[in-house]
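Researcher: Structure for this, please.
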Amino acid sequence: MAQAFTKEMSRNIFYGGTAFFFLLFLALTFDTHLALPDRDNREALDPTTERGQMI
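Model: Predicted structure, token format:
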């Protein structure tokens, strides 16, 4: 790559990186919301444990 790094190239790399990581963040957030019900342990809570949250 013999040509210089232009402002336009820098701007495009910045916008591309921003879009990529924003989409990655959305995908990971969506995946977390789908995984949380499977990792929940609410059925194992007994009344003693539930009262412990009131302290």
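Researcher: Any notable elements?
Model: Residues 7-54 form one domain. The longest helix spans residues 7-39.
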